[in-house]
Amino acid sequence: MTAPLRFRAAGPDDAARIAGLHADSWRRHYRGAYADSYLDGDVEAERRVVWSGRLAASGGTGTLLAEQGERLVGFVHVVFDDDPRWGSLVDNLHVVPDRHRTGVGTRLLARAARAVTEQATGTGLYLWVLAQNAAAQAFYAARGATHVETATVGPPGGDPTRLNGTPRKLRMVWADAASLCPLPERR
């Protein structure tokens, strides 16, 4: 029997597990846009430094974990009121491969949207997705996101050698984060 899915706010002690999932996701989905030398290197250690800093900071962001038993199966990170026009940024949303298409990502996105409705001053929600990541684009579009802009991907850590050429990214937008929040259950 599979343990039930539970959600909780991330804390500083979760940085290593988040970094591991983040690095694995980048290796699977960012190959071609990011340099193989970067992805095949110690990207997990680099992500651990990033996540340790993010989770130690207070205010303005939220990171939510999805767990089954002791296993991290997904996470979402939101930067509240990131952009005056587009609203709050879903900076990261990653789910382990064997839990794709099981509702974990949808539930994380809905919880991120609920946090925006409760904590942000604006109602908008947006994210960036790599142009090559057609599956993620379809996921977001199926949940009502609109593609409004295409831009060039910035290099991870500001190091241009970590990119292959000039990969592109798409801004996907929800004008109202509440549109992603599930209706309350009827009794």
Question: Can you tell me about this structure?
Answer:
GO terms for molecular function: acyltransferase activity. Its EC number is 2.3.1.-. InterPro entries: Acyl_CoA_acyltransferase, Bact_Acetyltransf, GNAT_dom. Keywords: Acyltransferase, Transferase. With 187 residues, this protein is α+β, with helices and mostly antiparallel strands. Helices cover 31% and strands 29% of the residues. The chain is built from five helices and seven strands; from the N terminus they run βαααβββαβαββ. Strands 1-2-3-4-5-7-6 form a seven-stranded mixed β-sheet, with helices on both faces. The longest helix has 16 residues. The radius of gyration is 16 Å and the shape is globular. The model has no long low-confidence stretch (mean pLDDT 94).
How many domains? The number is 1
Largest sheet: 7 strands, mixed
Q: Number of DSSP strands?
A: 7
Side-by-side strand order of the widest sheet: 1-2-3-4-5-7-6
> What number is the mean pLDDT?
94
Topology:
Blueprint: E1 5-9, H1 15-29, H2 36-39, H3 43-56, E2 61-68, E3 71-83, E4 87-95, H4 104-119, E5 125-130, H5 134-142, E6 146-152, E7 168-174
Parallel strand pairs: 4-5
Antiparallel strand pairs: 1-2, 2-3, 3-4, 5-7, 6-7
InterPro entries: Acyl_CoA_acyltransferase (IPR016181), Bact_Acetyltransf (IPR050832), GNAT_dom (IPR000182)
Organism: Plantactinospora sonchi
Domain N-acetyltransferase: 5-173
